[in-house]
Amino acid sequence: MSEQVSQLLESLREKAERGNLLYIGENIARVDSLEKVLGKPVYTADLIPRGTIYAKLFHSSVPHGIIKRMELGTAKAHPGVLGVLTWRDIPGLNESSAVLPDRQLFSDSIVRSTADILGAVVAETLPSATDAAARIKIDYESLPAIFDPLESLKPDAIRIHEKGNVARQMKIRKGDVQAGFTKSDLILEKTYRTQFQDATPLEPEMGLAIPEDGGIKVIGSMQSPHHTQAAVAKVLKLPPEKVRVIQAVTGGAFGPKSDETPFDVCSAAALAAMKYRRPVFCGLDREDSMVMHTKRHPFVISHKTGVTSDGMLQADESKIVGDTGAYASLGVFVIVRATFHTTGAYEIPNVKADSYLVYTNNTYTGSLRGFGGPQALFAIESQIEELARKLGMDPLEFRLKNMLVPGKKNATGALMDASCGLPQCVEKVVASSDYRKKAAQYSNQTGSVRRGLGIALLMHGNSLGPEGNDYGAVHIEIESDGAISVGSGLTEYGTGAVSGMIQVASSVLGVPLDRFKLERPDTSKHRESGPTVASRVVVIGGNAAFKAAEQLKRKLVPLAGEMLKVKEEDVVIVDGIAFDRYNPSVLVNWDTLVAEAYRRGVKLKEEGFFMAPAAPWDTEVGQGTPYVQYTWGALATEVEVDTETGYYKVVGVHAAYDVGKAVNPGGVLGQIYGGTVQGLGYAMMEELLHKDGFVVNPNLGDYYIPTSMDIPAEFKAFIVEVPGPLGPFGAKIIAEPPIVLPGPAVRNAVLNATGVSVDDLPVTPEKILMGARQSRSSLPARAQR
Amino acid sequence: MTKRITTMNINGAEHSIQVSPSDRLIDVLRDQLGLKSVKEGCGTGDCGICAVLVDGKLVNSCLMLAAQCDGRRAVTLEGLLNDSAMKRLQANFVTNNAAQCGFCTPAMLMASWDLARHSHEPSNDEIKVAISGILCRCTGYYQIIDSIRESCKEGGH
């Protein structure tokens, strides 16, 4: 036997030992990476056929008003214009809403924000539609408007919706906060505020509708095609099966593409396509996207927290108010997540929380990566830092005393089990950032340029939890040439999660990922699998893919046994080669095995379905186990602040996340880097400004997101693996969590460098400087001029 | 508006194209020539993901009029698919997970290729400057920077 052959056999033997974990933990190239680096025409706008006409949405120019008259004549007469669609052109239900039916597709009588859509101009070309839309005149009777959610909560406030200004209320009642405060030696009350953040996927929302066989085909940039199908069908008054929705390759999403905007663009395109019997493209330009799609909710969060002098947390009472703008959208679930994470990664025996999702006349907010987590954790991690300082305790030691570890209970009363990897995460970032030495060193700086370290800890409930039934279906079909086709209603929009999900199937089947191909999610082919949100593809879809692969293996392994003339239980498949685990020299390769299955008429198409176990909780007291498992994390950031100007930069980031099991470590790191940088944008520079209900900076020249020049020079990322009970091989979710901690970690680092507490995000140089002026004593002499 | 014939060399081939004075380069590349690797992310020159090379200079094709390109040479990703330096970059982008949603990827590759022409061992800071005009919302840039550094090391152009 040649050396090469024996090496191959040895490698097969070794890999056979890995079982289903065969390719788990390997950095395998994503199934969709090639089309991306080749610049293939796979995104919605690349697929526009000849003869397509264009729909341009137009929106309200007042934040709250009654529509008196719409002057459409000039627009209709504009060269190239085919018509203007308004609510009168909707054959079905005039609704474009994710959860509560509080939002119309095209407003018919009242507008509640400047993002309210009134209609669409349809024209032969996009410039023609755009020019005509600018010529539409609408007369409104202005109504009083509210832009501050706290104002909106007042009993005498004007009503933005008939049912009142609170879209959803939540509460937590754990223990007895009064008793906890009585026991406390120190009680701190503080209020924290967060801003509007824009998700800014680089591809804005797009929909392309093409009439076909008495129905319509819609191709679009979105997260949840089946939900879009339901929304479009409702508007068109068609049975859902007459609306076929296909998700094109999607150029980033981050939440808003799971919310109501994909319904808007796809419904408008579909309405026009049905009316004019031609393909219609409706895409938002950047400005329209930043005005019309959902943003991250601004929150006002007040904490009253009691602690004993030895540093043990006793009680926390919080009031959480989220500004959902004019419509609730997926905000009804954002407020749930924010509430359940109100005390973050700490055990507090007595917790009381009251939260309100409140309507205002701002543009509406909804789903955005982190989903209420960034706001809740900014508040509690800031509060923890302030408490430590008041106690004169090191903030790390204070956290170590109170953080969740196995055996402790979080705010919902859920008992943490051995799958809690928070201590390991903290250990990693403390060592990597040299926290103890540096914190001591930075405690007595005298110059005007000062450094500081900030730390923040994460608990992030996995998957949908209390947000709905958590299921997914994946089908796998092995084609006659051995290629493996995977389809699901769960979608890919950049994270690589679908590739990770397929890597699970690849590992179970024993066939390398490069033999797999991904079908475009298509409502006519794939089962409804819930929304693709909450980073749940690898955890939920991965379990479904695992099942489908196992079912296929049960058909192929006996066949391979027969071909190899060995017992079924001795057959293994590794790298697309089936062999006897005790005698690897006899082999059947994948293509031969599949060809034989086809010859015998064995059906090689299986669907795997997975539903997460119930996560029960009591709505009256907010107690129970609303999440089946949690992702844990720790972040340390180091800042350098020029105390004379307030200018600062983050010089180092140390991040550790417990992901249970990293299916594809390179992909996990990609989420940690990308989510952290998006979180640094939120912490340091991003703010979609509203003035009297108008978005002031709806463009990428005035709304800053991090460029390559803004990222920290040092970024150390660590993957911790403490298996959880839910995901395949113990995997936990990772796409959302890294955006959560940069806000408080940066804020706390600036505080430790300067003594300035910035309690409203983003932490800008102006706020640092203003804070410094108010507390000059903590600054060097030169800055006190 | 009256259309005029504009002659451009695009990806090595001469094209005579009817353009209106207001036609943007990006629209001519995408709609008339089918070069769909060129993406539009803002239309105001802020995001950089429509970047192409014109006479060897990286430009935002949403801010350039097609008529300005008369007699000039434009190169898009499609024109570099057989180029060895581009292939190295593409391979490293794939290996390092540098393309997530992929929407900025063609422009990132163009900027990286442009850097690789001038510099064989760029520092991280030089790489950051080279791609600073192009926004990426997914990756946080680190895996892109690693890919570019490795590609340049393996041999520029």
Features:
heterodimer; A: 785 residues; alpha+beta; Aldehyde Oxidoreductase, domain 4; Aldehyde Oxidoreductase, domain 3; seven-stranded mixed β-sheet; five-stranded mixed β-sheet; 20 helices; 30 strands; globular; disordered C terminus; B: 157 residues; Ubiquitin-like (UB roll); DNA polymerase, domain 1; 2 domains; 5 helices
Walk me through the structure.
The complex is a heterodimer of chains A (785) and B (157). By secondary structure, chain A is an alpha+beta fold. Among the domains of chain A are: 3-30 and 471-611, Aldehyde oxidase/xanthine dehydrogenase, molybdopterin binding domain (Aldehyde Oxidoreductase, domain 4); 44-144 and 216-273, Aldehyde oxidase/xanthine dehydrogenase, a/b hammerhead (Aldehyde Oxidoreductase, domain 3), CATH 3.90.1170.50; 414-463 and 622-785, Aldehyde Oxidoreductase, domain 4 (2-Layer Sandwich), CATH 3.30.365.10. In chain A, strands 3-5-1-12-9-10-11 form a seven-stranded mixed beta sheet, with helices on both faces. Chain A has a five-stranded mixed beta sheet with strand order 7-15-14-13-8, sandwiched between helices. The longest helix of chain A is centred in the C-terminal third of the chain and has 28 residues, at 537-564. Chain A is globular, with a radius of gyration of 28 Å. With 157 residues, chain B is an alpha+beta fold. Chain B folds into two domains: 4-76, Roll (Ubiquitin-like (UB roll)), CATH 3.10.20; 82-153, Orthogonal Bundle (DNA polymerase, domain 1), CATH 1.10.150.120. Helices cover 34% and strands 16% of the residues of chain B. In chain B, strands 2-1-5-3-4 form a five-stranded mixed beta sheet, sandwiched between helices. In chain B, a hairpin with a 2-residue loop joins strand 1 (4-10) and strand 2 (13-19). The mean pLDDT of chain B is 96.
The description of the largest β-sheet of chain B is: 5 strands, mixed
| Overall radius of gyration of chain A | 28 Å
Side by side, the strands of the main sheet of chain A go 3-5-1-12-9-10-11
- From the helix content, strand content and strand pairing of chain A, which structural class follows? alpha+beta
SSE-based structural type of chain B: alpha+beta
What is the CATH superfamily classification of the largest domain in chain B?
Beta-grasp domain
Tell me the distance between the termini of chain A.
Answer: 84 Å
Shape of chain B: elongated
The helix fraction of chain A, in percent, is 25-40%
How large is the count of helical segments of chain A? Answer: 20
Count of runs of 4 or more consecutive helical residues of chain B? 5
**What do the pLDDT scores of chain B average to?**
96
SS elements, strand count of chain B: 5
Number of strands of chain A: 30
Average predicted confidence as pLDDT of chain A: 96
CATH architecture of the domain at 414-463 and 622-785 in chain A: 2-Layer Sandwich
CATH fold-level name of the domain at 414-463 and 622-785 in chain A: Aldehyde Oxidoreductase, domain 4
**Which sequence of SSEs, written as H and E, runs from N to C of chain B?**
EEHEEEHHHH
Report strand % of chain A.
15-25%
Task: Tell me the radius of gyration of chain B.
Answer: 16 Å
